[in-house]
Amino acid sequence: MLLVKGLVRLKVQDVAQLVGISVRTLHHYDEIGLLTPEKDPDTGYRDYHDEDLTVLQHILFFKTLGFSLQDIKEIIHNPDYDQLEALKLHRKMLIDKRDQLNQMLETVDETIRAQEGGVSMANEEKFKGFDFSHNPYEAEARERWGDAKVDEAQANAMQMGEDKQEQMNEIYRELAAIRLEDPASKIAQDGIKEWYDFLNNYFTTYTPDMFKGLGMMYVQDERFQKNIDQFGDGLAQFMSEAMAVFADRKNSEA
Amino acid sequence: MLLVKGLVRLKVQDVAQLVGISVRTLHHYDEIGLLTPEKDPDTGYRDYHDEDLTVLQHILFFKTLGFSLQDIKEIIHNPDYDQLEALKLHRKMLIDKRDQLNQMLETVDETIRAQEGGVSMANEEKFKGFDFSHNPYEAEARERWGDAKVDEAQANAMQMGEDKQEQMNEIYRELAAIRLEDPASKIAQDGIKEWYDFLNNYFTTYTPDMFKGLGMMYVQDERFQKNIDQFGDGLAQFMSEAMAVFADRKNSEA
DNA sequence: CATAATCCCTCACGTAACGTGAAAGTCAAC
DNA sequence: GTTGACTTTCACGTTACGTGAGGGATTATG
Known about the structure:
- The structure is a homodimer.
- Chain A is built from 13 helices and two strands.
- By secondary structure, chain A is an all-alpha fold.
- The first copy, chain A, has three domains: 12-77, Multidrug-efflux Transporter Regulator, Chain: A, Domain 2 (Orthogonal Bundle), CATH 1.10.1660; 83-118; 136-253, Orthogonal Bundle (Globin-like), CATH 1.10.490.
- Chain A has a two-stranded antiparallel ribbon.
- In chain A, strand 1 (38-39) and strand 2 form a beta hairpin.
- In chain A, helix 11 (208-220) packs antiparallel against helix 13.
- Chain A is rod-shaped.
- Chains A and B meet through helix 1, helix 3, helix 5, helix 7 and helix 9 of A and helix 1, helix 3, helix 5, helix 7 and helix 9 of B.
- Chain A binds a DNA duplex through helix 2.
């Protein structure tokens, strides 16, 4: 409810109370050049007119839309600025954020259910710490091989009991011992079958393609490669090739 | 894919690459006491074991859920901490955030439509700047009188043309002139009717109750009161009472 | 009209979660 | 022994203000 134009001269606190923000906020907007009222040359007091209030309304509006102050500054002080374009771009951002939140909510719900329900025995181990199917590996893996949970085994491996960890290491060592053989040879394929069975028994059921994808990850992702190669130089590469052969043969079987 | 327990000793960058975060992040976690690996007494190098990696997995998991590092610190280092409770509380937070985002999205969409479609003549003025129905007054008003758009008129007033602004001021001045009369008197009720008609003509249609609520806001909200009283001391109080009488009579009419 | 209560101003540090150099020591390789 | 890659510890920058600190100006009251 502004008065007649030109008749309004408000001090910081008046404005602050009028629109429900803090004095500091107005100071801040002045500092960053977003809303710079006149200043009384004598006292140095900020002097807000009705035009300032109009601008402030715009600012607050864009703020409710989640724009940053810098963006708002451009939008407001730049008449050439394409407001519609800015809005559409911002819309995308909001949708992304919301999707992210929904994803987070799903995961939280899952976790709550797991904690509350005690989960089935089969999954108990998986949820022992928490559900690490949503782990840092996942994002990258998804990007490369879609949504197949190709890395779940690895993720779970990080949380599994010592017994199975030792089993895994045993297989790695076995494979490392034969890593100089031809990946397509019987001895190599027998070794890799152990690996395949192990993963299928304790984790997700892998389709041959997923298994092949997992192998590809061993060499393409240096994080995995580095770790696997600790059992022997070139082991990751060897396993990757052997897994590919194994998967292809499995596929042609059917 | 951790190795046998106790056999893993990784340096910062190894860990960083392994889980896909930055070295600085690990430094930061160390700084705030979230993840504090051993340090080689000679070199001062950070020395991450597999237990550290397990903790790191937990940290990253909670991070994907949007927990703050401080919260994560408590959750992880405090075995007494009720994780389930924390999850549920966090769930609420996420839902609130999502609702907020949805609200923002709606408003952005509305605004985009308004900008694109050119809007109908009736709404053109409303959207002239932008839709100020979402203005800082609104939140508080809603709290007091629910969702009735009791303050929309005021909000729009801030954006309306000078002509109507002047009309409004004229009415204020008229009312100020008679503000010492009895609010229930004919002259007061006639004056307040002008106000009522003015609002109904140019803004939302007010039910008597909403009109009464609006009047209450004039005195309960010092931001409004202050502005109204610029036309005359006690005007807000006078209008509030007159509006209440007007509304009550209107109600009993029906 | 003096004094107290407000209100105004300008620094300037604190917040969350790191990013981004800078200066300097360490390690493996050549 | 020197390069290159890595490590360390400062320490300032980021966003949108919050929160005093210290010191004039305005307004209210005795």
